[in-house]
Each structure stands twice: as structure tokens, then as C-alpha cells.
Amino acid sequence: MTTVNDLKRALKSLENKPKFERQLEFAALLTDYFKKKGIKPIVVGGLSVEIYTRNDYHTHDIDFVSDGWHLFDHLLTQNLGFTRTERAWYHLDTEIAVEIPSNYLEGNEDRVYEIILPDGKNIYVIGVEDIIIHRLEGVAFSVQFPEEDEDYEWAYRMFLIHKEDMDIDYLIEQAKQKNIYYLIEKWWQETN
């Protein structure tokens, strides 16, 4: 199990690694640390898009959906030297930022994907179908031409990369429930 001292040592060793590797390793350490407290942080947001696009997308923070906000706050600020802003914590030396936008997963908990890193530690990531839906929801009703928005483009890229492995019926069902099916309807015609 990861301890506070392990996290402190890791922050020092992560400083010179590439950003994506830094984020994944730190997310895995936090996941392992909070496991003993009965908390299961799930990676969402930009880092999940970066994972599912195989590092084509780039994000600047680690977004988790998780219980235990106050425990994250205490660990990051009191023990690890992170600075807290309104919604996020930032570590200056490693340029790692952590945010917990919610303790509620906007997606299906049963579709959360576990990734095991080379060191044996793991992270949990929102299902690819759910992050596609989430990205499309973000533009469907907020911009005039959603198909010209970069979030639409990233959703489509994730679809293209993972279409053979994803649950298309679930994706369609969710898109219809969220009234955004019109955004993905043509994807099958374009890719067949």
C-alpha cells in the first residue's frame, strides 16, 4: 500500500518524466493510497480522453470523480505541498494538477475500465462510451455548430479508435437518452 512518504518520494522522482507518464503514475499512487480508505477515484475529463486517444489529446490536470474530497485536500495540501485554488490542487515542482469536479460518475460504474500500469499499480477510468457521450453533451447545447467544436472531434476520434471494442448499443442508447443521437448517427455510415 502506498504511504504519504511513498507519495513524497514519488513527487521528487516524477519531476523529470514526460507529463502524461507523470500524471498516470501519480493518479495510480493516489488510487492505491485511497484504496485503504475505501475510496475508489475514477479518472474522468481530459486525462481519460488522453488515455483513450493514446496520448494524442493533451490535458493539464488529473480529474477524478471521487468521494473523500476533504481527505484529498488534507493529503495534497498538508502532506504533499500542493497549493489549492478554488477547484483544484497544483504542485509547482512537478506541474501536476488534481481536480475533483464531483463525487458522482456521469456514466455507468460497471463500465469503468481498470488500467494496470507497468509497476503493477492501477487506475480506474470512465468507460470510453461514457466519455464520448460526456464530450458530446458539452457541445450539443452550448455551441451553435457542435460538429465544428474540438470536443466533437475528440469524441469522434475516440469512437474511431475504439469502435471495434466498444458497446455500440450502449453508446446509441445513451446518446438517445441525452438527445444527442443526431451527433453520432452518421458515424456508422462514414466508417462502414
From TrEMBL:
Residues 38-182 form the DUF6036 domain. InterPro entries: DUF6036. The lineage of its organism: Bacteria, Bacillati, Bacillota, Bacilli, Bacillales. It comes from the Bacteria. This is DUF6036 domain-containing protein.
